[in-house]
């Protein structure tokens, strides 16, 4: 067998058809490696695998050029019928849990009423750089690239916006230099008005995750959000119940200050998936506010976000009519 065939077979054995343009001259190897859809860690790993395989097959130097097709990220809207139910906290932790599971995911804070994500992502005050007219996402907690309305405007300035302005501002965040990010979790403004409608009409999300607390009144608002996305023909990925049970740090007893199970029952009634339940736990607020959201750590809370991320990932990977 020629050196070329030995090296080519060794590379194909580790990366299949991702390698192309292989050249071998005097044991110096060069090739192109398609890294579309892989995150930064996976890119580094696959490149190292190729280098090892080529070296073990006899190459003395290996030059690898990474290439990736430009992909348009899919948007996952995280929405709630009303404010204060934990939508931003879920968005951050969902994105981090998805990234931990090896997915190439970004986060956009589209909540013009109170962009809180820069703090949760540990990048408060960090201004994104631009390449031409394109913003470059900043690297946030858990290695998740991130952009926020709070980086576009001063606090309070966006409150007076009408729908089209909000839609245009979202364009700046979504049409940024996301490189190989496949999915972007979008923290939507709470509610179901003109602003939210403009945003989803302009940037149709592939699906929506709705979050609610267990009280009846909150669930009525969540139902409104669900029918809002239904009307806009955005599929519902599922419903999350937040603040669903309180574990007393002193006596260890579990209580349900806002009730529990209401969201699961509502999801069943509506025929939409129930994605999981996050307890009321002060650690969630403290760690999120400190820019180290609990999904980055270990334990039951991190596991709960991980399980929701897994369900969202399964939904994204399942065949669907509106797949991009
Ligand atoms: N499961 C939880 N346990 C304890 N605190 C929580 C939990 N979920 C959210 N919080 C806290 O509740 C407050 C509101 O949460 P968050 O900002 O995520 O809500 P929101 O729905 O995005 O609100 P807004 O409508 O203002 O955007 C925050 O202080 C957050 O840390």
TrEMBL record:
What GO biological process, any one, is recorded here?
iron-sulfur cluster assembly
Q: Which CDD domains match?
A: Mrp_NBP35
Q: Which UniProt keywords apply?
A: ATP-binding, Hydrolase, Iron, Iron-sulfur, Metal-binding, Nucleotide-binding
Signal sequence annotation: none
One Pfam entry for this protein is: ParA
Q: Where does ATP bind?
A: 81-88
In terms of InterPro entries, this protein maps to: Mrp/NBP35_ATP-bd, NUBPL-like, P-loop_NTPase, YlxH/NBP35
What's a Gene Ontology MF term here?
ATP binding
What this chain does, per the entry, is described as: Binds and transfers iron-sulfur (Fe-S) clusters to target apoproteins. Can hydrolyze ATP.
Cite the record's note on assembly.
Homodimer.
What protein family is recorded?
Belongs to the Mrp/NBP35 ATP-binding proteins family.
What name does this protein carry?
A: Iron-sulfur cluster carrier protein
Source organism per UniProt = Sphingorhabdus wooponensis
Per the UniProt record, the lineage of the source organism begins with: Bacteria, Pseudomonadati, Pseudomonadota, Alphaproteobacteria, Sphingomonadales
């Amino acid at each position: 067998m020629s050196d070329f065939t030995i090296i080519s077979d060794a590379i194909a054995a580790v990366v299949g058809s991702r390698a192309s343009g292989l050249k071998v001259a005097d044991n110096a190897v060069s090739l192109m490696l398609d890294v579309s859809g892989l995150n930064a860690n996976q890119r580094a790993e696959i490149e190292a695998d190729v280098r090892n395989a080529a070296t073990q097959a006899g190459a003395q130097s290996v030059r690898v050029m990474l290439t990736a097709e430009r992909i348009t990220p899919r948007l996952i809207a995280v929405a709630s019928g009303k404010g204060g139910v934990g939508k931003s906290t879920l968005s951050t932790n969902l994105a981090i849990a998805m990234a931990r599971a090896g997915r190439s995911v970004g986060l956009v804070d589209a909540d013009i009423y109170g962009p809180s994500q820069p703090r949760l992502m540990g990048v408060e005050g960090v201004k994104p750089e631009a390449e031409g007219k394109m913003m470059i996402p900043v690297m946030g907690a858990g290695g998740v690239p991130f952009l926020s309305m709070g980086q576009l405007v001063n606090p309070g300035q966006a409150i007076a916006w009408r729908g089209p302005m909000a839609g245009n501002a979202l364009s700046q965040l979504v049409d940024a230099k996301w490189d190989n990010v496949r999915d972007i979790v979008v923290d939507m403004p709470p509610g179901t008005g003109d602003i939210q409608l403009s945003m989803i009409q302009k940037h149709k999300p592939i699906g929506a995750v709705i979050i609610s607390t267990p009280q009846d009144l909150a669930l009525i608002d969540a139902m409104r959000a669900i029918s809002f996305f239904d009307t806009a023909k955005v599929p519902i990925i599922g419903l999350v119940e937040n603040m669903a049970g309180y574990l007393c740090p002193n006596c260890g007893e579990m209580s349900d200050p806002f009730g529990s199970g209401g969201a699961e029952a509502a999801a069943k009634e509506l025929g939409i998936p129930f994605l999981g339940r996050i307890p009321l736990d002060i650690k969630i607020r403290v760690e999120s506010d400190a820019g180290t959201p609990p999904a980055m750590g270990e334990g039951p809370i991190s596991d709960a976000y991980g399980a929701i991320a897994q369900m969202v990932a399964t939904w994204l990977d399942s065949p669907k009519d509106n797949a991009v």
